Amino acid sequence: MNFVETRGNDGVKPVEATFSHAILNPSASFGGLYVPKELPVLEENFILNHKDKSYKELAFDILKAFEIDIDESEINKALDLYDNFDDKNNPCPVVKVKNDLFVHEQYHGPTRAFKDMALQPFGSILSSIAKKRDEKYLILAATSGDTGPAALNTFKNKENIQVACLYPDGGTSDVQKLQMVCEDGKNLKVIGIKGNFDDAQSALKSLLASDSFKEELQNDGIKLSAANSVNFGRIIFQIIYHFWSYIQLLKQEEITFGEKIYLIVPSGNFGNVLGGFYAQNMGVPIEKLLVASNENNILTQWINTGIYDIRGKDLKLTKSPAMDILKSSNIERVIYSLYGAQRTKELMTDLNDNNIFTMTEDETKKLQKYFSAVNSDDNYGQKIIKEFLDEGYLMDPHTATCLKAYENLKEKNLKTVLYSTAEWTKFSPTVLNSLNNNDTKYSDKEALDEISSKYNANLPQSIKDLFTAKINHDSIIDKENIESEIVKFIREA
Ligand SMILES: *Cc1c(COP(=O)(O)O)cnc(C)c1O
Fold first, then answer.
1. In whole angstroms, what is the distance from residue 410 CA to residue 412 CA?
2. Ligand 1: distance of its center to the CA of 323 in Å?
3. What average pLDDT is seen over the chain?
4. Domain extent listing, the chain
5. Measured by CB atoms within 10 angstroms of the end CB, which terminus of the chain is less buried, N or C?
6. Model confidence pLDDT, tens digit, residues 279-312
7. What is the best residue among 241, 274, 421 to mutate for testing ligand 1's pocket, by most ligand atoms within 8 Å of CB?
8. Of 381, 386, 385, nearest in space to 292 by CA
């Protein structure tokens, strides 16, 4: 299957691209993104036929339906990485917490957040393509805290790949920072930026667009790519687990085949819920996708009004930082699916030029057939964390935003799966503040120890080890020096 561009073709880039091309060169004409030309049509009874299959078998068959240009042996090697999750037979368990409510735990991978679900296999595939083509790539990543650790973990010591990871110094949790600065592959460079996540992300975007930087890399025989969720190589792995949600409810005899369900997804860049949208369009019986946001409520506004307006808006720093967003990259793929390339280009140009786009009433209605949205604030999240732990279930602040959608957005009495995108261990000070109903400044270490002993909560060995691990990266630099720091790293490696 080939890939096309969300904003149409500029006459220079290929009109249709292979999967390998789309993931090695993720930026398409006019600043657009790659999307599958059409979604695969699955065999009749695909879902029922996979009721007793493993996660890896399900994943393999979905990837196969996309007819991607990757050897089967490489696909299998990539999928084998799910064996390193807590339970190799069930890498992302779906757990019942109330009569009609289920939590899909996406954080059982090596870095304890949902980014592993896609980045683990993606890293393996990307490295195998680079090797096959005998090309070297520098992967840039900017992170607010979860993408960085997941990208470093997956690319560590991979052939033909180097990674430069930018994080805002002081802007991540201790655990997230340690997960990055203790990572030890020779091909990895971790750089703290004096600034916030926006600064890190802007620096990354300007490097990706810089011809002089690309030329400099080219002299060393290195090409540039990115590991954020504009890369379809991540999105494709985020379709699979939405099938898994449905199959798990079937297996647990909570639904009968054909019965619709709601999915609730705590959202930022819209990659997770986009996977749900594709899964729905490929035949998973989903009533609606419910989008949860925090106080950065841009997605709620867009879905409720058809207007995406970031004029004069500042990013708010919340207790669910992975959802702190103004420009959400993957809404573009939904817009393309619903209204086509020409309209996508119009709306995205408006957003770039004027910081606002406005859809028509008909367009908005069409969007609302698939999505509903609501946002909540930190106080709400902290109240939810406490309420659920009182009932014996420990969740992180991102997961907690989903409960607002569960309370407000369901129009029908249907079974509902909400996505838990991070383990509590990555945000333990916030969790402890919620439990103690205070705003004491705890270190991650204090909070982890207190919660695990008081509530008998499991602390993974990988988290415990962080506090005694050797620190391998200590660069903290000004934004102006990012390019030279990366060039230095390339030359030395
Ligand atoms: C990345 C992330 C999100 C947001 O996911 P998107 O695909 O960007 O919408 C939500 N929660 C956590 C914990 C994350 O790491």
1. 6
2. 6
3. 95
4. 88-112+233-467
5. C
6. 999 999 999 999 999 999 999 999 999 999 999 9
7. 421
8. 381
269 within ligand 1 shell (Cβ under 6 A): yes
Q: 225: CA distance to ligand 1 center in Å? A: 21
Which of 197, 238, 323, 424 to probe ligand 1 with, by most ligand atoms within 8 A of CB?
323
- Quote the tokens at residue 374: 């609501």
451 lines ligand 1 (CB under 6 A): no
Nearest to residue 266, comparing CAs of 149, 400, 379, 395? 400
- Vertex 68, ends 207 and 86: CA angle to 5°? 80
Q: The whole model's pTM is what?
A: 0.97
- Tell me: the pLDDT tens digits for 190-235? 999 998 887 888 888 888 878 899 899 999 899 998 888 789 999 9
CB 11 within 8 A of CB 207: no
Contact 163, 151 (CB under 8 A): yes
pLDDT at res. 226:
84
Q: Identify the CA nearest to 404 among candidates 434, 376, 372, 371.
A: 376
Give the start-end residues of each E strand in 182-314: 188-193, 222-226, 261-266, 286-293, 307-309
Average pLDDT over residues 351-380: 98
Q: Is CATH 3.40.190.10 correct for 88-112+233-467? A: no
Statement: residue 370 has pLDDT above 90: yes
**Closest atom of ligand 1 to CA, residue 426:** 13
**pLDDT tens figures, 436-484:** 999 999 999 999 999 999 999 999 999 999 999 999 999 999 998 999 9
* Mode of pairing for the β-strands spanning 3-5 and 34-36: antiparallel
- Distance (Å) from CA 293 to ligand 1 centroid: 10
The answer to whether the beta carbons of residues 288 and 365 sit under 8 Å apart is no
493 falls in which pLDDT band (50, 70, 90)?
confident
423 ligand 1 Cβ < 6 A: no
